[in-house]
Structures are given as C-alpha cells and as structure tokens.
Amino acid sequence: MHGVGLIWALARGWQLTLVGFAIAPVFADVMAPQSNLVSKCEVHNKRAREEVAKQYYDAISNVRAIRAMGFKDAFQEKFDTAIDSALTTGVRGAFFEGCTYGVASALIYLAEAPLFYIGAVLIAKGTYSYLQMIQTLQLIVFSVSIGSQLMAFTHRIAKATRATCDFNRLLKLSTATDESKGILTPDLSGPVSFTNVTFSYPERPDVPVLRNLFVEVCENECVAIVSSSGSGKSTKVALLQCLHEPDTHCDRSSCPALDRHSLPPRPSSPSSLTCSMTR
C-alpha cells in the first residue's frame, strides 16, 4: 500500500512527491531512536515481570516449607520488592510507549504543513491545477500516514524480538553444568547427635515443636525418620543445616559439615518409589 501510493503520486505530480520524499528522513530519524528506546523499556519490563513470576512460583511451590520454617516474612518481602520494581518499571515504560502514538500522529500533521505550502506555490505558478494538487497531496498524505502508523507497532515488534532472543538463548544453553564437574566433596564423617534439644519457631514461641529430643546417628548409618505430619521431621533437617538455632544450647562440634544433598526430606503424601530405599 505504501509503495503503490508513492508510485501513483509520482505519476500525478512528481514535484510535490519529491517534497514528500524529502520528509522521509525526518520520519526515519525520529523512528530509529524511538524504536531503540521502546526496545530498552521492553527489556526492563520483561525482566521485572519474570522476577515477579519467579518470586510467586518460589513461594507457591514451597509454601509448606516456608510455613514450617517461618520464612513467610522473608519471601513476602522479596515478593513485594519485585512487585514494586515491576510497577515502577511499567509506569516509566508506559510513558515512552505512549509517546510512540503521539509522535506518530504529530508527524502526520507536521508533514502536511510543508506539503500544503509547496502545493500552493505550484498552483500559484500554474504548474499544478487545483485538482492535481489535491490528488497528489492526498496520495502522499495517505502513504505518510501508513508509514507513521508503523510506529504504533514498535512496542509489539520490540516485545516479539526480545522474546525471540530469549528463546534462542535458551536453545543454545549448554547441558553441562559446573556442579556436575566438581571433584571435591565435603567431609561427612562422624556421628550426628541431638542431645536434649528443644525448639520452637520464632512466630509461635509458645508451641514447642521439639522437646527434650535425643537422637544419635552413627557414622555410615542410613536413617529414615518416618512420622506423622507436623511431628518435626523437616525441623530436624533445618537444625542440621543450621537454618535455625535451637532454644536450648546445642553443641555442633561433633557434627560433620552437612550439605543439603545429604539430607533429602520427603513429603508426607504417599509416593511410589521406582527404586529401593537403599538406593
């Protein structure tokens, strides 16, 4: 449509059409930085939305562990921070994306002013008739309007481009990770013992979860703690990982340095295992 309109305008009146061609670089000079600015805003908006989705997913997928270990305030604070950041980024980006529509409409009216003036001069000199000038002017304005309306799709083009780049980056990610190449492992030798341990979560200090607990796991011994929900299985694991401090004094000098891969907690819901418990 854009090319057909310009060719038709050249056939009707090439002098006035050349004036329209002279205005084209102005559209390009305005559209290029506007497109780059909108693209940068879309990058920031997308990252902010992804951060909100990540915090929401982490909270929902680990809601039981968060409630059990008293991490609600920490996750709530991180989620609120992500929402505030997304709101600030969105408001800032909305201003620049809204300017795209304003600039597109303004360019049309700014382009019509010199075209009307040159057309009047050509009519005064007898080069164009009034009908020829109006027809040529309408064709040029029609073509310019189509070109300026492309700026309204700048943010959509930027969004699609950013999504394509992110998807391409995911496709090119290597399956090898640094964690799979390590050769050093922490020393896990030695017994693990709980001696007269009492613990209650900070949110409910009046409700003891563990009371006078005595548990000893010898070296090279595999132990599975099985009990009803709410009896403190995850709490014992959290204490071993030093996520909480017990109410009573606990001497960890005899406990080895444990990592989370050595303490796999299982959910309370029934699960079908495809291998033996030893494996």
UniProtKB/TrEMBL annotation:
Region (Disordered): 255-279
Topology in the lipid bilayer: Multi-pass membrane protein
Subcellular location: Membrane
Main subcellular localisation: membrane
Coiled coil, from the record: none
This protein's GO CC annotations: membrane
Residue ranges annotated for the ABC transmembrane type-1 domain, each copy included: 4-159
This protein's record includes keyword Transmembrane: yes
Any single Pfam family the record assigns to this protein: ABC_membrane
UniProt keyword list: Membrane, Signal, Transmembrane, Transmembrane helix
Signal sequence range: 1-28
A single GO molecular function term of this UniProt record: ABC-type oligopeptide transporter activity
Name the UniProt record assigns to this protein: ABC transmembrane type-1 domain-containing protein
Species this protein is from: Polyporus arcularius HHB13444
Organism classification: Eukaryota, Fungi, Dikarya, Basidiomycota, Agaricomycotina
